[in-house]
Amino acid sequence: MLVCWAQKLRIQWWILHNRRGDMSQNATAMKMRIMYKGQELRFPALLNRKTGDLVQLEDVKAFEEFHGEEVPYTIAAGARWSTNRETYRRSRGATQYHCFQRGDYDEVRSLWHVDQGYKKATQDVLRHGDAVRSLAVDLMAHSASLGNPQLWVISRLDPLIEAYQRKYNIRNIMALQDMERGKRLRDALGRINIPAACFAQGAAQGNLQKRDQAIHYIESCMTRRVQEVLREIDDVRDAYRRVRCSFKPEYANVWAREDAGRRLPTEKPQGLHVRGWQDDVRDRRRWPYLAQELEWHLPFFKGMKALPFRRNATHVVDDMQQALDAIQQNKARSLADALLRLREGTRWFFVLDHLEMQVIAPLSLLAYDLELRSAASLPLGAEKPKFVPKRAMASRDFGQIYRQYSKFTEFVGLFDDGVLKHSRQDDVLASTQFATKAMKDDDWLAAKEHLLSITDLL
Predict the structure, then answer these.
(1) Which pairs from 337-345 meet CB under 8 Å and 24+ separation?
(2) Spatial distance between the Cα atoms of 180 and 253, rounded to a whole number of angstroms
(3) Which residues pair with 81 in a beta bridge?
(4) What one-character-per-residue DSSP string does 16-49 give?
(5) Tens place of pLDDT for every residue, the chain, 458 residues?
(6) Would you list the domain boundaries of the chain?
(7) Which residues pair with 73 in a beta bridge?
């Protein structure tokens, strides 16, 4: 009995703590206009998150150019919007915010990709800076022994200049201008001026050093943003676990291992039985306490506005509300049915979380890492061909991803969501056939698209 009430007190504190946070977020909902891809989008309601991102509360119509024609499409409610100063500068104000149309997991993957790109950029900047410095030193020390120093400098600087022709950052542009000046050995008076050329090359190396410092600052900001979004996902994950474990608290550890894909088929809970919602349904004297706990949980799920959580959270709120109505109307059967839908419906969140964090995210990061490695092996300034990841490039990593995907399909196959008002099992299983075929055909880009289409169903 003491264990039961201690757990209930922890649940009360956690829910009330997060409830205050959600209520403060709801208070900052606002109307706004945003420039996105050259068009002005009007949002009747946007929610300002603690991270500074905006969450779209209603569907918005937008247009996209296709073969010279404007094709309409819908940005679904729950999309996340975040500011990007670099995008704003490049587009000259045509795009103020970046849109993550699939929500939180989509933003995490994008931020991880950006972090991967910046790590690669840091290596390139340092390598190019060393090459320019080495050129300046060699030119200053050995210019007299070079047969044609002008051709020698051009042959070493032209690949670097070609590589920086497509750069947008101001420091990269300044480094490019310095390198172009540094390859001209004659000054304005037509004299061979080796020190002036070396000075310009040194200036290019200095600008590349400042770019490296800026990248380190951006990486720290990206790390902080990733942690903030992951913390939000952890809050959602924790809320679902607490609701699920409220049915049978002694199953908390068993279900935690099941959600991580490590539960044994015959595993049973350890320890004494703890009273939960499963028992409260059969005891009308416990219904007031059950109603109180449902009301504590309800505000947090009502505050889940971002994708992909809002779809499942909407059903959770409906089931909780129907359970509260059944308690008020003293209908035992309706209460049992609502709580059964609530218990089974929350399982879909853990399936979605496993698919996103154990399959899609590793696949996306692995494919991008292989693409960066392939690009690094090309000569400076060479045109990059379309990259297609194959299992042979990292057979162990792709094998691990496939094993996690197999666990996902196993989870879905064991479900019995016939009690739900909106059954998803058949549609999800049908979609997994396409993803499985793509993986077996070694077409991982198509597999990722099929996996993302599955998340749209969950």
Answers:
(1) 337/419, 339/247, 339/277, 339/281, 340/419, 341/315, 341/419, 341/420, 341/421, 342/243, 342/316, 343/244, 343/247, 344/415, 344/416, 344/417, 344/419, 344/420, 345/312, 345/315, 345/316, 345/319, 345/417, 345/420
(2) 64
(3) 54, 99
(4) HHHHHHHHHHHTT-EEEEEEETTEEEEEEEEEE-
(5) 434 444 444 444 444 444 434 433 444 567 778 777 777 788 888 888 777 788 888 888 888 877 777 788 888 888 888 877 766 666 666 667 788 888 899 989 988 888 888 888 888 888 888 888 888 888 888 877 777 888 888 888 888 888 888 888 888 889 888 888 888 888 777 787 888 888 888 888 898 889 888 888 888 888 888 888 889 898 998 889 888 888 777 677 766 666 655 554 455 556 555 566 776 777 788 888 888 888 898 988 988 888 889 888 999 999 889 889 988 888 888 888 888 888 888 888 888 998 998 899 999 989 888 888 888 777 766 677 788 888 888 889 999 999 989 888 888 877 777 777 777 888 888 888 999 999 999 999 999 999 999 998 88
(6) 2-101, 110-220, 248-377+392-455
(7) 62
Which has the closest alpha carbon to 424: 397, 394, 456, 385?
A: 456
Residue at 213: amino acid letter: Q
Q: Are 145 and 170 in contact (CB under 8 A)?
A: no
Spatial CB neighbours of 186, under 8 Å, sequence gap ≥ 6: 192, 193
Place of tokens 């290019």: 204
- Which of 245, 234, 255, 344 has the alpha carbon at shortest distance from 293? 245
Write the pLDDT tens digit of every residue in 19-33: 434 433 444 567 778
DSSP 8-state assignment for residue 271? S
CB 95 within 8 A of CB 88: yes
Dump the DSSP string for 314-334.
HHHHHHHHHHHHHHHHT-HHH
Which class for 41: exposed (0-12), middle (13-18), buried (19 or more C-beta within 10 A)?
buried
> What's the predicted TM-score (pTM) here?
0.81
Which tokens in the block code for residue 361?
């995210």
